[in-house]
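Same chain as my last thread, 382 residues:
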Amino acid sequence: MPLSRPTALTIASVLGLLMASGCSTSEGENAESPEITASSSPAANSPSPAEPATLPKVQNLGCQEVTGLPPGEQIKAATADYVVTTSLKDTRVVVRDTESKRTLLTYDAPARLRLQDVYLRPPSLVVTSYDEVEDAAPEMVVIDLDTGDERVVTGGARKPWTGVSSVGEDYLTYGSHGLDGGYCLTKVDLSTLQTQDVGCVPPRNGIHQVRQSPFGLAYTRFDDTRPASCGSARVAEVSGRDAVDVAGPAPCNVWESVALADGGAAWGEVPKARQIELANYYVRQGAGEPELLADGLTGSLTWCGDSVWFVQSYGRRMLRWSSETGLEEAFRDPKNHEVSALSSPICSGDSLAVLVLSGVAGSRTRQSFTSPSCLGRRAKQQ
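reply #2:
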């Protein structure tokens, strides 16, 4: 039986919008992995949100709005120095100076290819492109932001496949094929382009939702069980040793995870298999007991700076958690539009960005907010 494409719903699909973010969310689209059963029910019919152990504190992180961009371009990432956009046809990437909007460099996808993922990780920009027609390996390019030099990632001994990739800690991690045709993960050093195998999953299993933090590489392994697949959170240590299961998540319900210090983890569990857009987010510090943080949108869990970030299920505020501060409300639409939604957090090195969509269908506006202070690090608030 052929394996089919899973459905990874993010805030964009929940609200009927099309949006991409740098961490996230296209990581769930594996063209050849087992199917994940999804719900067509709107978020308005969701179950009651889970009650967190403690209500989040409110922390104003001073994010700054990015303005002055040409109409029609889609923001993919932003920092205090760079803002990255793509054309409407997903064929060109433009990098500009955030303050002056002066174009610093452009990148055009090769003929017949369309852009898939764009990661801003100064001093590098990573772009992946794919062929919509042929089942060909994606092209992955690492661009030096200072010189404009482009280097193509060859993929090493394993052939890459489309849909799973992530950047963090100076590494690009991407889906690759094992010798038996199964699914694996490979990582490549952005400086040297040297590759290293992370590991493979058993037959009739797939990989999605790859996340990187200083404490390890987390991903979800899922099978082709019907009517709903069974997912388990896995973490490979930074050293590259074999991945192990994350302790704490309920069996089969996990959607995504992030590795924390001392073997801890944060993760999202989907309480209803036919509403995979909705999750309850948990955290476990070290060998302690899991703690429920809040409800949220699947696909939005991200590590950035020194904290875990995610968007609550109604999509109007972003929460963050760290062992030092606990759970905080980090960002919400500053203009308090009646109808608005946040993208998943977009992490780019030492900066975090978020997109705000406001209005109703046919008259939506898109804003981007970013700055190093979005991370809210204590050193920046003294």
